[in-house]
UniProtKB/TrEMBL annotation:
Keywords: Metal-binding, Zinc. This is DNA-3-methyladenine glycosylase I. GO terms for molecular function: DNA-3-methyladenine glycosylase activity; metal ion binding. It comes from Marinomonas alcarazii. It comes from the Bacteria. Pfam families: Adenine_glyco. PANTHER family: DNA-3-METHYLADENINE GLYCOSYLASE 1, DNA-3-METHYLADENINE GLYCOSYLASE I. Zn(2+) binds at C13, H26, H180, C184. InterPro entries: Adenine_glyco, DNA-3mA_glycosylase, DNA_glycosylase.
Amino acid sequence: MGTNTESDIKTRCAWASSAPGFPHYHDTEWGFPVDDDQRLFEKLCLETFQSGLSWRTILSKRDNFRLAFENFDFHKIAQFGENEIAELLSNQGIVRNKRKILAVINNAKRAIEMVEKEGSLAVFIWRYEPDENTLPPPEIQTTCAESIALSKELKKRGWQFVGPTTMYAFMQSMGLINDHAESCFMREEIDRARKEFERPR
């Protein structure tokens, strides 16, 4: 007869129990604020690949994506040519969608431009952090004014697969928004992390 562990009885966001890898991702990553450019770029790329698919699919392949895309070093990805594209299209460990692969390569080039212009991806992205007082209760919406504005500006700068809903999911996961459910045991921890987080300038 099994016994419940502390992890089993914690109240999490509803989505966190929908796949085997989700509880760990939910408890250790989702919603913690991030200011590392490589991690931010990785999440933008994974959100690109998720378009039309489930996060469960992408998360289960994340290690394969990291290996295939040079750990999401955008300076290296920007140099990818026909040989690398062919290798990616034959890689069964990732999502083999040519449009998305080309979008990631394009966005790597745009990321380099952004760092040159803004100083870092983090400085630019965190300008779009929403005022928490303007957001509805958690788990209600899939876009906000800031995700729409971020999407619009990225598209203006030549980025691809960066729609408002994709940007909202990105903002949730990278800590620009605390969208953990009110009843979720992680909500207070994310609040503390966000208060202690030094916004990039």
